[in-house]
């Protein structure tokens, strides 16, 4: 009787829970039995593993083989367990010492030839293996991705026979050493390319400085999309933890995590996107657009054209920073700490309030159009700004300091003050933090209460207004929020929501 244990990792959301592949060889009729809640793709691994072992000039034992994928209540799917299953059989049959697998985790799909094929979701598994203090065996194509987990020993193998020789110490595989990530960063479009729109640029600066949500409203062609695309360039660079979280999400979503790494994501879904596309889902839950925009920007153009039910699902993640997808077997949490930027026209034809007087919409049409957006959703957007039409001068004179580099420096300085003071951006302040860091003088507090009553603002809107005022004060490098900051913040709030 022989027993071998191989460590591997499952993929659940953006997490990688541990899976132990236990292999037991016993006397009896030759067979291979897999238990531990394997899905169809895992059950099919029996044939892939058998062919891979035989074609690698190794011995497939003619004994009764039982393999348990523990824990038994965790569903297992995909081909990521092929390598662990094959190594378990080879170790249990004595073709290399089972002790060699004690401090190693394995991921990889096997070809019938014995080659090891890449799998998705390697980075979350690499981070979990690093926490467990084990090395990670991955296909060569996944080695660069796994090496993002600094301090992890990565063993990159191209085929099964090569790996067996490594464990037998016949020909050791050197730990993978990255030559340095090739950062394919796209240059951010510059803010100076936007003609005029000084008020909108100011709102964009405030949104970037405090991580506030922003809504642009105006006629077609006024630069709303152009302005929104400039926001990622104003935001501070991702730190290592944030960059790894973004890369892990892209890895799970089958996106190349090294592409434009470590830039902040900018997601721009079409208005026909379904609820599942926006928040994630499916029989095997995958991250949606709000998770793919984690630590970045989610831009929703033509906001009223989105289905209202789709937009309503944004309300909870805008507050909590995560989305929970419930299934019969489990609840899966995806991170969704994104910054929402939206754009819309003022009416169906788009020209309400335009100097050209081209609007032909009736009052009822305008009301139906605007009613596609609920008050609670609009209440969660900190900055509302109307973008008016500018002149059509082809070569306007740029304003001093009206560029991405200058604006990004101001944003970085404001964010640094916020993190030193409270440990987070102003938009993420909780109620105790709001009371501690957004204090007003007695006179200004009474003035704000009166203004909120006249504008019929909700308590949530008043709190968000205070956070915007705190950001305006940070941009001016002053410790105390003044009435001027509150007055400017009020200009960004529509009344009667």
From TrEMBL:
<dbReference type="GO" id="GO:0003677">
    <property type="term" value="F:DNA binding"/>
</dbReference>
<dbReference type="InterPro" id="IPR000523">
    <property type="entry name" value="Mg_chelatse_chII-like_cat_dom"/>
</dbReference>
<dbReference type="InterPro" id="IPR025158">
    <property type="entry name" value="Mg_chelat-rel_C"/>
</dbReference>
<dbReference type="InterPro" id="IPR045006">
    <property type="entry name" value="CHLI-like"/>
</dbReference>
<dbReference type="InterPro" id="IPR020568">
    <property type="entry name" value="Ribosomal_Su5_D2-typ_SF"/>
</dbReference>
<keyword id="KW-0067">ATP-binding</keyword>
<dbReference type="InterPro" id="IPR003593">
    <property type="entry name" value="AAA+_ATPase"/>
</dbReference>
<feature type="domain" description="MCM C-terminal AAA(+) ATPase">
    <location>
        <begin position="286"/>
        <end position="387"/>
    </location>
</feature>
<protein>
    <submittedName>
        <fullName>YifB family Mg chelatase-like AAA ATPase</fullName>
    </submittedName>
</protein>
<dbReference type="Pfam" id="PF13541">
    <property type="entry name" value="ChlI"/>
</dbReference>
<dbReference type="InterPro" id="IPR027417">
    <property type="entry name" value="P-loop_NTPase"/>
</dbReference>
<dbReference type="Pfam" id="PF13335">
    <property type="entry name" value="Mg_chelatase_C"/>
</dbReference>
<comment type="similarity">
    <text>Belongs to the Mg-chelatase subunits D/I family. ComM subfamily.</text>
</comment>
<dbReference type="GO" id="GO:0005524">
    <property type="term" value="F:ATP binding"/>
</dbReference>
<dbReference type="InterPro" id="IPR001208">
    <property type="entry name" value="MCM_dom"/>
</dbReference>
<dbReference type="Pfam" id="PF01078">
    <property type="entry name" value="Mg_chelatase"/>
</dbReference>
<keyword id="KW-0547">Nucleotide-binding</keyword>
<dbReference type="InterPro" id="IPR014721">
    <property type="entry name" value="Ribsml_uS5_D2-typ_fold_subgr"/>
</dbReference>
<dbReference type="InterPro" id="IPR004482">
    <property type="entry name" value="Mg_chelat-rel"/>
</dbReference>
